[in-house]
Amino acid sequence: MQAVDLPELKVSAYSITSCLGVGSADSFQGILDGHSALAPVGNSLGIDFSCYLGVVDEVEDCHLPCNLRHYDCRNNRLAHITLEADGFADKARCAVERYGSHRVGLFVGTSTSGIAATENAYANRQSDGQLPAYNLHCTHSLGSLLEFVAESLGISGPAQTISTACSSSAKVFAAAQRHIACGLCDAAVVGGVDSICLTTLYGFNSLQLISSLPARPWGRSRDGISIGEGGGFALLERVQSGDKGVRLKGCGESSDAYHMSSPHPQGEGAFIAINSALRAARCAPEQIDYLNLHGTGTPSNDKAEDRAVTRVFGGSPWCSSTKGNIGHTLGAAGVIEALLCCMALENSAVIGGVTEADLDPELATSKRFVTHTKEMAIDHVASLSLGFGGSNCCLIFKGI
């Protein structure tokens, strides 16, 4: 199968919020320093099992602008914090002025949106079972984040929410690239936000996928994930002559539909997604200098991913997972990890991931798993996101 000829896009601006801090600099510096912001869950959530979470404390003190208060929920507060960090909102609004609001697309990923607002409503229902008044559409709805960001930035072009579990905000890059290639828009804001909620915590715990210790991707004794919350946004534009900076080279997607929550044992979907991305980017496997693994820290997921990566790359490239640093941010993981890859390119560094001292010797890629950041020249990087139901996405970026 031949790759569709899609344009390279420059990553003109971006912002990240994670439990390591608000703004890209804090998150990236925490990664460089090998810091983990995962902490034991407190009593405030009232859950009846032990786990570690990556919480963004600044959300508690966030107040939405008056004209956007009807969107008030934890998820949209987290989106607002991320949009305002790094001057991203101003840069995006400049693009809107430059191209026209109807010529800028918006593509966002989330898995649970503002479902915590509904959880809170049920927790505070009246004695007759009636829920207190709250705005379901502007909080819980999967379209809430999309509408909130569109109103915040003044975007009226093509807009889409993608909710494919943990690959959600990786696939937004592919959606934006296709829309720009088709001439439906000239630029796009892409992003993803997911926030802590009980539905996620109890759901993953029912699947026996949550560890009582901090997540240990690729570790010998890994036994589950740690959930985090966070957000990320990027502005994508066509490359103009003389442009410098990081470029999105290619995207690869697959849907193996092997199982609702378990990966294909041989990582078949991941294998297809990686190869599709390489074809789209016109890259050979040996050109990839660093791979950001999905790396959740569950025994079966890491094993399946290792098999897929080994089938494609053999003994290279360098790789790591940042989920031991910031937790699994679910629908926001794709964009956050993609942008960490962009910063790795800009800073000539292969980023390390926090895990345990003993890596699993049965995982072939353990020999190339980086636990401490390595300063070195890198040219191409890839980020891999694998979602429930076999929804997968691989992104390849290049530094210029």
Describe the protein in words.
- The protein is of the alpha/beta class and 400 residues long.
- The chain has one domain (10-398): Peroxisomal Thiolase, Chain A, domain 1 (3-Layer(aba) Sandwich).
- It contains twelve helices and 16 strands.
- The strands form three sheets. Strands 1, 2, 5, 6, 7, 9, 10, 11, 12, 15 and 16 form an eleven-stranded mixed beta sheet that branches.
- Helix 10 (299-313) links the parallel strand 11 (288-292) and strand 12 (318-320).
- Helix 2 runs parallel beside helix 6, helix 7 (168-181) crosses helix 12 and helix 9 crosses helix 10.
- The protein is globular.
- The model has no long low-confidence stretch (mean pLDDT 95).
How would you briefly describe this protein structure?
The protein has 12 helices and 16 strands. By secondary structure, the chain is of the alpha/beta class.
By CATH reckoning, the class would read Alpha Beta
Which geometry do the CA atoms define?
globular
CATH topology label? Peroxisomal Thiolase, Chain A, domain 1
Question: From the helix content, strand content and strand pairing, which structural class follows?
Answer: alpha/beta
The portion of residues assigned to helices is 25-40%
How can the largest sheet be summarized?
11 strands, mixed
The CATH superfamily is known as Thiolase/Chalcone synthase
Number of helices: 12
| Poorly predicted regions | none
Q: Please count the beta strands (DSSP E, at least 2 residues each).
A: 16
What share of the residues does DSSP label as strand, in percent? 15-25%
CATH architecture: 3-Layer(aba) Sandwich
Write down the secondary-structure element order: EEHEEHHEHHHEHEHEEEHEHEHHEEEE
Q: What is the domain tally? A: 1
Whole-number mean pLDDT: 95
